[in-house]
Specification:
There is one protein chain. The protein is α+β, with helices and mostly antiparallel strands. It folds into two domains: about 100 residues, Glutamine synthetase, N-terminal domain (Ubiquitin-like (UB roll), Roll); about 325 residues, Creatine Kinase, Chain A, domain 2 (2-Layer Sandwich), CATH 3.30.590.10. It is built from 13 helices and 15 strands. Strands 7, 8, 9, 10, 11, 12, 13, 14 and 15 form a nine-stranded mixed beta sheet that branches. It is globular, with a radius of gyration of 21 Å. This is Glutamine synthetase. It comes from Mycolicibacterium hodleri. One of its GO terms (biological process) is glutamine biosynthetic process.
Length: about 425
């Protein structure tokens, strides 16, 4: 408390991110920081089935009765704005035990499952987003140069503010650049443990939003912010190691992949059709997840293949963190804790079952005779597959799948028949922090 007071903090926010991918928070005055840890702040169980448009998708097990608590660890609090600190919260019952729909606790259990197998997992994240005007329209109307020095320097004051705010918040940003899409920006984060990586994703969204606001901008984390525009990804990178070293290098397999590493990649690829509803299941996800968009619309893997769902990065001098597997099809509508749990969990499932590494697709899958067909990405197919998946229930629990399916079916009912332009406008800021 003294450290935060010295930094000018007056209010502390504790947040949870729901199955719809929206981050929600409660605040307390700094003097109540200890209460936020010991007893937590009360929330309705319906927080777990809040929808992107503020609807509530009640389920047979979640209704109007009951009470849960958001509890934070004060040591995780970070200054995110003048007078404001933020900490990731755990959703618990009144006794302090993890609630069945606490996504952060679920990811922590998956992380412990890796440790129980003698494996260390590191996760890194890349966040793509779209800068927009305060009225919700495009931030700029002039020509855009993808990755251009002009387009980035035109936003230099914002980018410097972003870097300064991130450093103040203890956020380890490795790279910032303007992206291919008009007014698009990408931030890459350093790899860390799984829970810390998901926490960092939420912190980055907050820091981006606050820094942008000081420069007359808003930030959209919609999978597609404007009809016909480039999509925003939320790529996750995974590396695994055991007592003998990394699983993705040092072996006799392709690019040095060891047998257990091949099984991990196989597990991820095998589970993609079942888990797509976790990675990219929103009403806007299918607009991005198409062949040709570098979004990973095909369930395959390949070395530096940006059209494959799993892009493999080999251990070379150009990869300072070593070999890793990148899951490209994740978008920002995904809950980052659930997406990381699904990614890591499916890799562990592959290791447990000693799955064989499938044949690499080294070229564009659309031009390969051996590549599988693109994934079925329409929201109805994606949600149906998630709902009936034994793999998803095994990795993420039936209760969690029920909640994810409920909020996505609400989206289907509300936006399923609407034109894309109308849906992108309605949900442009749904996942912003």
């Amino acid at each position: 408390m003294d450290e935060l007071r010295a930094k000018g903090v007056e209010l502390v926010a504790g947040s949870v991110t729901d199955p719809a991918g929206v981050t929600r928070a409660k605040y307390v005055p700094l003097r109540r920081l200890g209460d936020f840890q010991r007893s937590g702040m009360g929330v309705s169980p319906s927080w777990s089935v809040f929808c992107v448009d503020s609807g509530i998708a009640f389920t047979p097990t979640i209704g109007v009765a009951g009470d849960l608590r958001i509890r934070i660890d004060p040591t995780t609090a970070r200054v995110v704005d003048d007078g404001i600190a933020w900490a990731p919260g755990n959703l618990t019952d009144q006794a302090g035990d993890p609630a069945p729909l606490c996504v952060r606790s679920l990811l922590a259990r998956t992380e412990r499952a890796a440790a129980d197998r003698g494996l260390t997992a590191l996760v890194g994240a890349e966040l793509e987003c779209t800068m927009i005007a305060p009225d919700g329209g495009p931030a700029s109307t002039g020509p855009w140069s993808p990755y251009g020095i002009r387009t980035s320097l035109e936003h230099s004051a914002f980018l410097v503010d972003l870097a300064t705010t991130a450093d103040r918040a203890g956020l380890s940003i490795e790279q910032i650049h303007t992206e291919y899409g008009h007014d698009q920006l990408e931030v890459s984060l350093a790899p860390t443990t799984a829970v810390a990586a998901a926490d960092a994703v939420i912190l980055t969204r907050i820091v981006l939003g606050r820094a942008a606001a000081r420069h007359g901008l808003r930030i959209s984390f919609a999978p597609v912010a404007f009809e016909g525009a480039a999509g925003n990804g939320a790529h996750l990178h995974l590396s695994l190691a055991d007592a003998d070293g990394p699983l993705f290098s040092g072996g006799d397999g392709p690019y040095g992949i060891r047998p257990a590493g091949g099984s991990a990649i196989a597990g991820v690829v095998d589970a993609l059709p079942d888990l797509l509803g976790v990675y990219a299941g929103s009403a806007l996800s299918a607009l991005r997840l198409k062949p040709g968009n570098w979004a990973g619309a095909v369930a395959c893997w390949g070395l530096e293949n940006r059209e494959a769902a799993v892009r493999f990065i080999a251990a070379t001098p150009g990869s300072p963190h070593g070999a890793n597997a990148e899951l490209k099809l994740v978008d920002p509508s995904a809950n980052p804790y659930l997406a990381a749990a699904a990614f890591l969990g499916s890799a562990l499932r592959g290791v447990d079952r000693k799955m064989d590494l499938p044949a690499e697709i080294p070229e564009n899958p659309a031009q390969s005779a051996s590549a599988p067909a693109p994934l079925a990405t329409d929201q109805l197919s994606v949600v149906d597959a998630l709902e009936r998946s034994d793999v998803a229930a095994e990795l993420l629990t039936p209760e969690m799948i029920e909640a994810v399916v409920a909020v996505r079916r609400h989206e289907l009912a509300t936006y399923g028949g609407r034109p894309a332009a109308e849906t992108t406008q309605a949900l442009r800021l749904a996942w912003s922090c």
